[in-house]
Write a structure and sequence with these properties.
The chain is about 80% helix and about 0% strand. By secondary structure, it is an all-alpha fold. It has two domains: about 5-170, Orthogonal Bundle (Tetracycline Repressor, domain 2), CATH 1.10.357; about 170-298, Four Helix Bundle (Hemerythrin (Met), subunit A). The chain contains 14 helices and no strands. It is an enzyme of class 2 (transferase).
């Protein structure tokens, strides 16, 4: 492997910028940033400048966590064909540089959120960074099939950051949004893990399908989807959102439950892929519906 690295050409500026951007896991961040922005408009009427601050600060914090994950998982990435070309295992960025970059992004996030928004939003973003790097990446990912369940809390932090940036506090509605993403994460990621079971098994990552089997994973997806359905309807019951949100939530959950049950019955890759892809749209549409509902009620 060292010989192949030595043969690699020195990356140009364009390649280097692309590689450092890749370390932030930008595709993963798109949905996180959407939940931040939509939550801000549910919480109040933020200025474009404040939204920009929250987006930049949130991107840097989550990007730092992503870079840390790239650094720590470089041995796993090197062993899988799907990830072997990533910047660190491919030898284009050194592990030391990636680690410095990770913490540098988090420091920049904290400063930007503190100055441009408030200290609470900065500390919440820092908490998300800590949870993803220490609790998920260092502690749970390689040790427990509950890694996604517990570690998924990091991905649920962006709504808290957005709410705090607008209001300077964390209200019950913000906690509900946190809980929705928390319970959405397992069925979303377990559907993906069914597609990647062999790779996870080969590198020794104890994802649910590897440890408890595909049948149990599909059963858990159905259970968590039902829990998610109940949770997403509670904000309407308690008056946080109105009829528009309720109608959209019912429709989305009916579709998600249908796909989860179909996945349990069919047990094929096509069903897993459909459930995974729909889960992405599910969360995006649900949070946009919150904004539409909140703006019409205001």
């Amino acid at each position: 492997m060292e010989a192949s690295r030595a043969a690699l050409p020195v990356p140009g500026v364009k390649q280097l910028v692309s590689d450092y951007f890749t370390l932030t896991k930008p595709k993963v961040q798109l949905l996180l940033l959407l939940t931040t922005i939509t939550t801000m408009y549910v919480a109040g009427d933020p200025s474009i400048g404040l939204v920009a601050v929250a987006v930049i600060g949130g991107f840097l914090s989550a990007g730092g966590a992503g870079a840390f994950n790239h650094w720590y998982d470089r041995d796993i990435d090197e062993a899988m064909a799907r990830t072997a070309s990533r910047p660190i295992p491919a030898g284009r960025i050194s592990p030391r540089a990636a680690l410095i970059y990770a913490f540098g992004l988090q420091v920049a996030s904290f400063v930007i959120l503190t100055v441009g928004a408030n200290v609470l939003s900065a500390f919440l973003a820092l908490a998300g960074f800590f949870w993803y790097t220490v609790v998920y990446t260092l502690w749970l990912k390689r040790r427990s099939p509950q890694n996604i369940v517990i570690g998924g809390a990091a991905g649920a932090v962006p709504p808290l950051v957005g709410w705090a940036a607008v209001t300077g506090s964390v209200a019950p509605t913000a906690l509900y949004l946190f809980a929705i993403i928390f319970y959405w994460t397992p069925p979303h990621f377990w559907a993906l893990s069914l597609l990647m079971k062999n790779e996870y098994e080969r590198v020794g990552v104890p994802m649910m399908p590897v440890v408890h089997g595909e049948k149990e994973t599909r059963r858990q997806i159905v259970l968590y989807t039902l829990l998610l359905t109940l949770l997403t309807l509670l904000p309407f019951v308690f008056g946080f959102f109105g009829a528009i949100y309720a109608v959209v939530a019912v429709g989305l959950n009916a579709a998600f439950i249908t796909l989860a049950i179909r996945l349990q019955r069919n047990a094929d890759r096509a069903s897993a892929l459909r459930a995974y892809l729909f889960s992405l749209s599910y969360l995006a549409i649900l949070f946009v519906a919150m904004v539409v509902d909140a703006q019409l009620l205001s």
